[in-house]
Amino acid sequence: MTYIVTDNCIRCKYTDCVEVCPVDCFYEGENFLVIHPDECIDCGVCEPECPAEAIKPDTEPGLDKWLQINTEYAKIWPNITVKRDPLPESKEMDGVAGKYEKYFSPKPGTGD
């Protein structure tokens, strides 16, 4: 098992989770975070830290797409280990349906 970041992170990008990760397995895109599944030690400390409830165990049904997205982008985006302010639109975007199709950006973030 590993933890993965799902679509509710898109255009919210809260970083509370990266600060508590003991193995620094979060990677930053322009408007989204991902977890590197091969680096995650399945400790689960990040899941309750996410205000958008976007972090899920990959054992939940229907998350294969998100496991693939996390795996792909963790290989090319920069590592992030420090908490930053969420995106300005984070409160309005929390819970919006269809975020991946409408808003996902494959561009990398700045990292640490």
Give the termini separation: 27 Å
Number of helices: 4
The total count of strands amounts to 4
Question: Helix/strand/pairing class, anyone?
Answer: alpha+beta
Q: Could you list some keywords that capture this structure?
A:
4 helices; 112 residues; alpha+beta; globular; two-stranded antiparallel ribbon
Would you kindly provide a brief summary of this structure?
The chain is an alpha+beta fold. It has helices at 16-20, 64-74, 90-93, 99-103; strands spanning 3-5, 26-28, 33-35, 55-57.
Question: Would you give an account of this structure?
Answer:
It is built from four helices and four strands. The longest helix is centred in the middle third of the chain and has 11 residues, at 64-74. The chain has a two-stranded antiparallel sheet with strand order 1-4. It has helices at 16-20, 64-74, 90-93, 99-103, and strands at 3-5, 26-28, 33-35, 55-57. 37% of the residues are buried. The radius of gyration is 12 Å and the shape is globular. By secondary structure, the protein is an alpha+beta fold. The mean pLDDT is 96.
List the helices and strands and how they pair.
Elements lengths: L2 E3 L10 H5 L5 E3 L4 E3 L19 E3 L6 H11 L15 H4 L5 H5 L9
Antiparallel strand pairs: 1-4, 2-3
